[in-house]
Amino acid sequence: MSQLGVRVSVKAPSNIALIKYMGKRDGDGNLPENGSLSLTLDSLCTFAEVVRSQHSSGSDVTWVPELPLEARRRSDELVSPARLPELSDSGVFKVIRHTERVREATSKIFPKYGLKCSKNGNFEIRTANTFPAASGIASSASSFAALTLAVAQACAEEPLQFRTLWERNMELRRDFSEISRQGSGSSCRSFEGPWVCWEGASARALTTRMPEMTDLVLLVASHPKRVSSSEAHGWVKTSPLWNERVERANSRLKQLQAALDEGDLQSVSTLAWSEFWEMHSLFHTSQNPFSYWEAGSIQILQALSSWVSHPSQSSSEKPPVVTMDAGPNVHVLVPTVEASRWRSRLEDLFPGIEILEDRQGSGAEILEVEKLNS
Ligand code: DP6
C-alpha cells in the first residue's frame, strides 16, 4: 500500500551519570576519553515527533517550535509540564544535521535486520522536554536519543516491523545508540536501563543487584549554563588534575561496576561522591577556571556530606547516592521504597526548595506510529 507519510511519536529519558563522561578523544563522533556509567531515568524526558510527508519530492528537514501531540495528550501523566526547548540557531542546526545523520544511517543499519528504508520526503521535527532547559539535567541526552529513535522509526517502510524489532532486539537499539552518540555523547546511555555503562563506541545495560532507585533532584537554579558541557569537555584538559584522570575514572568505573553487582549501596555512594567532586575540581582548576556551583549547591553538599560519610547508625538505612552534573543542581538517588522519607527529610533540611522526582527507567520508547493517508 502506498503511504503518503507517517507521524511518529517517541519518548526518551535523561540519564544521570555516576562516573562522568568528561573529556573527548580528538576527532569527530564524541568518543570518550574514559568509560562512564549512568542510571536511566523515566519521566524526566524528551518527547519527539517526526512527521515525514511524501507529498513532494523534497527532502527538507524543518524544526517546528510547537509541542508534540503526545506531550499535549499526556500532560496529565507528567511529573512536570512539557516545555519547548529554547534552541539557538546553532541548536536548530544541530537538530537538522543529526536528522540527516540518522536518515543516512538507516540505509546501513536496516538491512542487517531485514528492514527496508523509505527515507524520502520532507521531515518536520517537534520536541518538548519535561524539565527546565539548561538546568544541568542532561537535556541533550534525552533530546538526541528521542530524535534518533523518532527519525529511525519514520524511515521504516514497514513501521510495525521496526517497532516490534525495537522492543525486542537489543542489537538494533545499540546500533542507533551509537548513531545518537555522534549527535551528543551522553545520549547513547538513554537507550537501555536502568544501569548503563558506556565504553569506547558503545553503551550496554548492566545486570545488577541494586534495588529500584529514585532520583530526587534538588533544583538550585534553572538559568542557562554559562559554559556548555561541550565546551567543558575541552577545558578540563587544561587542568593539572587532568593528568591520570582517565586512569582514575576507569578504575573508579570498575569499582562501581563491582559495587552495583553486589548491590552495595554504601560503596556506590562513596564512589559517586568522589567522582562528581573530581569532575567539578577539573572545572575549578582549568586554565580559565569556571564553576557551575551556586551558593545553594554548596549549602546542600555540606548538609549531605554527613549522610554520605556517616550513614544513620540507628537503622539499616543506607546512605544516599549524591551526584551533580554540569550544573548547580544536586541529584540524590535513593531506593524507591525510601524515597518519600528522603523527600520529607530534604524538604525539612532545605525549606522552599523545588524537588523534581523521577524513578529509574528502561530507555527510549516508541509511543505512537500513525500512517498519514491524506
Ligand atoms: C557532564 O553529552 O552533553 O553530563 O557529547 O558534547 O553533547 P556532548 O556532551 P554531553 O556531555 C555530558 C557530560 C556530563 C557528564 C555525563 O553525563 O557523563
Q: TL;DR of this structure?
A:
The chain has 374 residues and is α+β, with helices and mostly antiparallel strands. Helix content is 37%, strand content 22%. Strands 1, 2, 3, 4, 5, 6 and 11 form a seven-stranded mixed sheet that branches. Strands 8-9-7-10 form a four-stranded antiparallel sheet.
3D structure, described in words:
The radius of gyration is 21 Å and the shape is globular. With about 375 residues, the chain is an alpha+beta fold. The model has no long low-confidence stretch (mean pLDDT about 95). The strands form two sheets. Strands 1, 2, 3, 4, 5, 6 and 11 form a seven-stranded mixed sheet that branches. Strands 8-9-7-10 form a four-stranded antiparallel sheet. It has helices at about 70-75, 90-110, 140-155, 160-170, 170-185, 230-235, 245-260, 265-285, 295-310, 340-350, and strands at about 5-20, 35-55, 60-65, 120-130, 195-200, 200-205, 215-220, 320-325, 330-335, 355-360, 365-370. A hairpin with a 2-residue loop joins strand 5 and strand 6 (about 200-205). About 35% of the residues lie in helices and about 20% in strands. Bound molecules: ligand DP6. The site of ligand DP6 has 16 residues, from helix 6.
